[in-house]
Specification:
nine-stranded mixed sheet, three-stranded antiparallel sheet, Dihydrofolate Reductase, subunit A, about 170 residues
């Protein structure tokens, strides 16, 4: 299972239910990485998608405890265990966790990789990704050359689990 996100210098991922910034190259990479795969997200993340529509070309699993939540085109799961049951038999590199904060924390123990766009700027965020630099179970294994979007520097980073986790 792979966690995928864009994070700022303080590991913030959003504020007020919105992304901190939309970087076209990051959005392009997200599409390339997840197209044809299974994506896992929470209800709030799903509701923030354009038109509250599932991500096209992907199997969308949405985690929600709300018994009345049942949008078309997604598989709603009521627990982490139900999500894991639906994922049975799917290779881990075909499964992407794409938010929000609670869902990242819930699935961190099950993930082997994190594909992160690290933005060299500190926003006033209110939602955060787990800080993998401070987690001894994770190691930065790859980092791209720095790119910029207007004057905003960012790089693509891969973290891999080096110990622990649920197998």
């Amino acid at each position: 299972m792979i966690l995928i996100a864009a994070v700022d210098k303080s590991w913030a991922i959003g504020k007020g239910g919105k992304l901190l910034v939309k970087i076209p190259r990051d959005q392009q990479l997200f599409l390339e990485e997840t197209l044809g795969k299974t994506v896992i997200m929470g209800r709030k993340t799903f509701l923030d998608l354009p038109g509250q529509q599932p991500l096209y070309g992907r199997r969308n699993l949405v985690l929600s405890r709300d018994p009345d939540f049942s949008p078309k085109g997604v598989t709603v799961c009521r627990s982490i265990e139900e999500v894991l049951e639906k994922l049975s038999g799917i290779p881990g590199d075909e499964i992407f966790v794409c938010g929000g904060e609670g869902v990242y924390r819930d699935f961190l123990p099950y993930a082997d990789k994190a594909e992160l766009t690290k933005i060299d700027y500190r926003y006033d965020g209110d939602r955060f990704f787990p800080n993998l630099d401070e987690d001894p179970d994770w190691k930065l294994t790859q980092e791209s050359e720095e790119e910029t979007y207007f004057d905003l520097p960012f790089s693509f980073c891969r973290y891999e689990r080096v110990r622990g986790g649920v197998r």
